[in-house]
Amino acid sequence: MNFNRISLGAVPVFRRYGLALALLLLASTLGACGGGETVASGGIVGTGDAGLLGSGAISSAGTDSITVNGTSYRLAGAAITVNGQPATAAALRVGMVVAVDAFTAPGGGNVARSVTYRAEAQGVVAGVDSVAQAFDVLGQRVRVDRQTIFEGGTFATLQSQFVEVSGFRIVPGEVLASRVEIRPQYVPGTVPLEVTGTVGAVDPVARTLQIGALIVDFSRMLAATVPSPLAPGITLTARGMLDAASGRLIAETLIVVAALPAPEASRVEVEGFVSGFANLGSFKVNGQAVDARTATFEYGSPDSLRDGVKVEVKGRVTQGVIVASKVGFEEVPAIAIEGLADAVDPVAGTLVVGGQVIVANATTQFEDRSAAAEPNFSLAKIKPGDRVSVRAVRGASGLTATRIQRLERGTPPPAQPPVRVTGTVSSFVSTADFVVAGQRVNAVSAQFVNGGASALRDGARVAVDGVPNGAFLVATTVTFVEDGVGPVVVEIEGTISDFASPASFRVAGQRVDASGATFVNGTIGALANGLRVEVRGVQNGVVLAAQKVTFKGGETTTTIEVEGRIADFSSVSSFRVSGQLVDASGATIRNGTLADLRNDRKVTAKGPLVGAVLRATSVAIEDAPANGQEIHVQGLISGYVSVARFVVAGRTIDASAAEFGDGKATDLRNGRVADVEGVLYDGIVRAKHVEFK
Prior knowledge:
Distance between the termini: 48 Å
Structural class: mainly beta
């Protein structure tokens, strides 16, 4: 197992993937002894021979193998289970927390007998806290960080969307997500929701229990189907429908997640958060007992172990306890680089982007998000000129990648919207389903400009920025445009796909005919899959007749984002963050001013890489005093007492001096969805603006 060096302040910590020790090896569903179901999970589970048992997030996935905790497993013949259902290797994705039961083949290499995945939560996002980088789903507080993978959207598109969350449980009711999949096609009330977690209070009379902040009502279940006994502290998966009026999950199924003992002397590799720490010989990782008294420590020391620290543990099982041979700590990726690959050396394990040499190792995550979408994607499949996005940490030996993604050549820098469509709303069903310029749009999580969600209707002219997700564009912003006269002119921006000829291709899912268009920054012969273009034209049925096609430049620019504490500060135009030289003289400063920049301030700096210098366009001061900090939250109103005290996304709000949009103060009540902007004072957000959704 490989471990990467990290440090946070003076105390090294580990960071890498995601949530509790994955519902390990959901290999067998046991009979309903004493009522209900029990599945194997939570601890180390195996088959009894000298195999290898692993639990962690997938770092690379293909048709015939996956990598977990730096160990590769062949999948031929493996029994794969996804959310309780049989599946194929195609269903496994990078970032999913899985449990693997494997053996070492006679000729070498590890072969998986079974791979089991179960999400921590499948439900609708009830609140988003942009400052804390957290959101609420089914009563669970879900944190995200730089290593969290988003599929089908971004953090900005979470509110009110149906999501599937995988990761590692930090404490009961709180999860660090390794992967978040957004599904805009979800229709409320049609699909059961599901959450896994530690049971809190149980009320046998009312027949309710609590998982995190969620109340689960099992009063409609037959007594024979309810697990017995139900008690605080057990791990449970609850599945059912959400009652909108009470906010409770009306349970259809309750499944106890029970750890079964691993076979003696099994080799084990697990990752997760430390809990129940008493001493080196007595603590747990994702509920599994660990003894680290004889372990070696990578990039940390025994003094670094404590509750809430994330670790990777390698060892053998003795009398139900992992006797650790190695414990590793790791840091959150502090550097993000996006640009074209200058050079690739698979033998040396290096990638050069914008002159930066980056090392990939066995724990580096690999994803191909280009049109090629190659399975078993690895460093060897990257070619000079490919556009890549890299997350990395800087150590004594330089940059080490925690994630490498290949993107479409025309993918814009992260600050730009991936897709824009402009046109007239048609086929309006709801805020979650309407059409603009032939593109289906889901705008339940969008910000609205020049109007509110209630103004959406057939015939309204809008410009929509968002993220493609299957058949939908998940909108981040919807801007209402003044009505014009004459034909409706449509503007879309995105990457070309399904190219057959200049008269037949797609941009952002919209069919385009550019045979009669004029071209900017290129010619008609340059049209090809993967290029990013802006198309302006007139809608003709399902086809956009292009009048002008503009090839979008900027894909050769290397952009970089670094997070950490300022060092070697000599002026605002010369200091270092995570070892990267930064010039912030032209930057926009958030949570402070240029005068606040000095050694040891924690900041996030973003901008293009010019030579060896990050020319910052923005610098956010992350350790500014809480009072006075700008806060933006979205979510369901709860705990309503008065206009001066209610809760949104876990934040207490005082809206007594706020301006209101799409409603008024008297419309405040539990269950309404509100978008709140304000300033934090003594733990309370003094709202400046409240918009009803």
